[in-house]
Amino acid sequence: MLTPRVQKPEVSSQQYAVVMVNEEQLNQLIRRPGMRQVNSRFGSNDVYNRYERLKRRTTAAVVVLLLLVAGGLAWVFVPQPAMASMFAWSRTSAVPTIDTGASFSVTVASVDSSDGANGAATRVRSLGLPAFTRRSPGKYQMYQAMVGPFASLDEAELAQRRLSALGYRGARLFVDESLRGVPRSERPEEASATDPGLLLLGAPDRVSLVLELQTEPRQVNSSRPDAATLLIDAGPMATAANPQQWSAPDGVHLLHTVSIETLAAQGGLNYLRARVALPEFAKANVRTEGRRVYVDLTWPLDGEDARAPRRPKPTVVQEGEQSASEYREPLSASTDRAPAPVARGQEGRYFEAIKPIHQRITEIRPFLLSAVQSGSSDVHAALDQTLATIEASLVPMSVPAAEVGQHQLLISALRMARNGLAPGFPGDRVAQAQKAITMFEGAMAAPVISVAP
Fold first, then answer.
1. In angstroms, rounded to a whole number, what is the distance separating the alpha carbons of residues 374 and 372?
2. CA gap 13, 243 in Å, rounded
3. Do residues 121 and 223 touch, judged by C-beta distance below 8 A?
4. Residue-level pLDDT at 276
5. Fewer CB near the terminus (10 Å): N or C of the chain?
6. How many Å apart are CA 57 and CA 90, to the nearest integer?
7. pTM exceeding the 0.70 threshold for the entire prediction
C-alpha cells in the first residue's frame, strides 16, 4: 500500500540571515568613527597613579628642604675654617702661605731638672751653636738641651759631628714634623729663580723662619723698629729680588706676615730686606747657616717653665751682657746691691694686687676651652665680658720693672682669648684658646734662674 507524500506548506513571508559581529566589526561595516575616551586622565587605575606621583613630588620637596636647612645650620654654627675646608671655592689665595717643612735638631743632654738643661744649653751656646731647652712629653718627663732647628739633615748632621768632637758623644738627631702638613694657599704666579726661598719650620716651643738666599750673605743686620716688626737686611745679592708678601699658616701665632723687597746700595749692589710682622710678646733671634738666614721665634717663657709653680723672684740683675731672657741671681744678705725699701714696697704692693687676679684667671681658665667648643654666642659674650673686666683692672696698674714682661704677657693672653671669643673671629677658636691658656701659664710663672758659668 502506498503512503501518500505530504507536502510542506510554503511560507510567503521574507527570511533573513543572522550575522554575529562585535563592536569593532560593526564600526568597520557601517564606517562609524571610533569612540574616544572623554575623561582620559581618570582611568580604572588612576587613583594609584596619582598617589605614586604625589609621593615622588613630596619626597623630592622634603629632600630639598632638608638640604636647605642643613646648609643654613652649617653656615651658622660650623666655624669658618671648617667651612673653608669643605668648600674649595671659599678659600682665599690673595696672599700665599709660607711653605712649611720638617725641622732637624740635635739633642745634646737629657736631665731631670730645668737648671741642668739650661746649664748645658748655655755651655753649648758659648761654643757658637744655637741651643735651646724643652721638656720632653710623656709619662717620664725629662728636660733636654737641644741645638737647632735646621732646615736640612746635612746641617743637623754637621752640628752633631761638631758636638761629638767637643765631647758631646751622646748627641742624637730629633725630627719635628708638626708643620709639614698644614693647609696652605699656593703662590698664584711662578717664582723667579732669583727670588729667595722661604720656609717655616716647627720645633719644640718655637717656630723658625728660613730665608734661603742666592749666595752666602756677607752682611746680615736685624733691627726691631717697633714691638710688632722685625727688619732683616742681608746681602749683597747678584740680582734684585721681586717684591713678595707671604702669610703664616692657620694655627701659627708667633708670626703673621713676611714681605720681601730689594734695597739698592752704592756700587750697584742689591740687599734683601725682609719685614716680619709678629706679635709684640714674641722674641726673635737671627742667625745664619751658609746661604740660609734663620729667624727663631719663641714665647717669652718656654712651655716647660710656664707650667712650673710660681716662686719668689730675685730682684738683682747681673751686670754684663743680657740675653732676651735676663739672667738673675739670688739676693744674699751681704750684698751691697740690696734694693731700696721703696722698691721692695712697690713690688710688695704689686704682688698683693695681682694675686686675686691670678686666682680669678685660674678659676676661669678651665672653662675657656669648653666655652669655645660650645658654639653658643651667649656663652662667648658672657666670658668675654669677664675677661674684659680683668683686663681693665690690669692696664692701669703700677708695675715694677722686673715684672713688666710677664704683666704685658698676661694682658696679651687676655686679648688673645677675647679675640677668639669675638663673633666674627675667622680662625680656629679651639687653637686660639689653647694658645691663650699657654700664655696664661707663662704669665703666672717665674722664669728659670740660669747663671752663665
1. 5
2. 123
3. no
4. 95
5. N
6. 33
7. no
**pLDDT at residue 46 in the model:** 56
Q: Are 295 and 212 in contact (CB under 8 A)?
A: no
**Residue-wise DSSP of 178-190:** TTTT---PPPSSP
- H and E: helices and strands count for the chain: 10, 16
* Continuous H helices in 198-333: 303-306
Angle at 314 between CA 308 and CA 315, to 5 degrees: 135
Beta pairing partners, 246: 258
DSSP 69-84: HHHHHHHHHS-HHHHH
The two most distant CA atoms of the chain are separated, in Å, by 186
User: Dihedral of CA 377/383/386/388: which sign?
Assistant: negative
As averages over each run of 10 residues, the pLDDT of the chain (453 residues) reads 56 59 67 53 54 80 81 59 42 73 92 88 88 80 90 93 88 89 65 79 91 90 91 88 88 90 81 92 91 91 40 37 33 36 64 87 83 82 87 86 78 87 86 82 55 34
Rounded distance between C-alpha atoms, residue 413 and residue 436, angstroms = 5
Can you name the residues that pair with 258 across neighbouring β-strands?
A: 246, 276
Q: What is the DSSP string of 85-97?
A: HH-GGG---SSPB
CA 251 to chain centroid: 2
What is the C-alpha to C-alpha distance for residues 27 and 98, in angstroms, rounded to an integer?
A: 88
Sign of the dihedral defined by the CA atoms of residues 305, 410, 325, 177, in that order = positive
How far is the C-alpha of 448 from the C-alpha of 227, rounded, in Å?
24
Give the residue ranges of DSSP H helices in 375-428.
Answer: 377-394, 404-421
Which pLDDT score, from 0 to 100, does residue 424 have? Answer: 84
Rounded to whole angstroms, the Cα distance separating 159 from 131 reads 11
C-alpha cell at 222: 736685624
- Cα distances from 255 to residues 68, 77, 82, 294, 445, in angstroms, run 39, 28, 22, 14, 24
User: What 3-state class would DSSP assign to 297?
Assistant: strand
Q: Judging by DSSP bridges, how do beta strands 172-176 and 103-111 pair with one another?
A: antiparallel
* Phi then psi dihedrals of residue 225, to 5 deg: -60, -30
